[in-house]
Design a protein that fits this description.
homodimer; mainly alpha; 9 helices; 74% helix; disordered C terminus; DNA-binding
DNA sequence: AAAAATAATTGACTGCGGTCATTTTTTTAT
DNA sequence: ATAAAAAAATGACCGCAGTCAATTATTTTT
């Protein structure tokens, strides 16, 4: 029932995140001080810390919110009857789109979640597990359609494709793959992983 | 000919790195101040910065030195005629061994090199390229032996295996894979990637 | 409506990473 | 050996992330 407070809390939280997006994107994460961020958001410095634990938590929260949104959107829009590759492309490219729009945020978020310290690792493990489980139905369907071997554990399958995503993103960050070529690179990697790396002569059929 | 100076420089550099290894390993990176590090190394705080540009540079330097050492050692010891999988296992497990011995260092180094900011990306790209090229001969040989398809670019092949390494390491950091199971997990991932992810019935031969 | 209780806000303060003018050490020149 | 020049070491100092006791705003109680 506490109307004024609740509304203010939500509003201020949004203000801080918006200010952070603006400043971090414009000047970079390190070049933006919390004091300046607070000023931009129209509040005192200390207040920032009653909404977020640390400077990096601002980044983390923003990215988790975005990911949640992306995934909900995808869960609604994905057609589970299209090919495995199509579905993975849609998913990965949606995440990549978010990443390329918020490069600085994405970089810091990935640094923290892909290589977490002891303190965060449980939380990250949970996020990762939830993410993998989100994809399990897609892989099961693909197995049923005969697109994937049945004798592989779902976790391993998920791992293989997640590995490709990590690779793509890493190559994008270090400049090996420009933004415009990411889709094609992902497509190639997915094709190769789905098709397998075997020599052509050991494989029963090949369209090339 | 400047004997005293040159020797001192090398010695002090070593002292700083040793102190860093001791303190970072014992108390963690964030919990170790440069002032304390300098005390441990028996020098003044400012002196640290005439040997290393930033706190993270200490980590970076240590890891690059170690990697250089590991790779030289491997280049000498690897038998280019054993199977692709055996060679990759030896390489990856050697790097993983270094990583698991210096977890804190490794984490920070990977964060910086896998997801570099604009400022570092050229340097990291060069490191990554050198690393990939180191592996190219192994893949060429494997292609010649018929272990890998000939129609794939070397860079893509390198990418696939590098992706697996990233995955393994990430899972290790977030606790999904305990240290003792890393070898087996890597083995499984390599097998699956080398064998391909195809359904068994589409493949000409299979031992299971 | 006033008082008491509770929650939110704030900026002065602390500690650390990194800088730089000054001092100390080493080398070169005389 | 002494002075001048060059290199290295140093700690006081700066800016910023994060803390906390004091203050202000909101809610509940009477």
């Amino acid at each position: 029932m506490s109307s004024i407070r609740e509304k203010n809390k939500i509003t201020k939280r949004r203000c801080i995140l918006d200010a952070a997006i603006r400043l971090f994107s414009k000047k970079g994460y390190d070049q933006t001080s919390i004091e300046e961020l607070a000023r931009e958001a129209g509040i005192g410095k200390g207040t920032v810390y009653s909404y977020f634990q640390t400077k990096k938590d601002i980044v983390r929260t923003f990215c988790e919110d975005e990911l949640e949104f992306i995934r909900e959107e995808l869960a609604a829009n994905t057609n589970p009857d299209t090919s495995l590759k199509d579905q993975l492309m849609i998913l990965f490219m949606a995440e990549f789109k978010h990443l390329s729009r918020n490069k600085e945020f994405g970089r810091l978020y990935l640094q923290e979640t892909v290589f977490p310290d002891e303190h965060h690792s449980e939380k990250d493990l949970e996020m990762q597990s939830r993410y993998f489980e989100l994809l399990f139905p897609i892989y099961v369907k693909a197995q049923e359609r005969g697109e994937l071997r049945q004798d592989l554990e779902l976790l391993h399958i998920a791992g293989h494709f997640y590995a490709l995503y990590l690779l793509l993103v890493s190559c994008w960050f270090n400049g090996m793959i420009p933004t415009g070529e990411a889709r094609e690179a992902m497509s190639t990697l997915l094709d190769q992983t789905i098709e397998g790396l075997k020599p052509a002569e050991q494989t029963g059929e090949h369209d090339e």
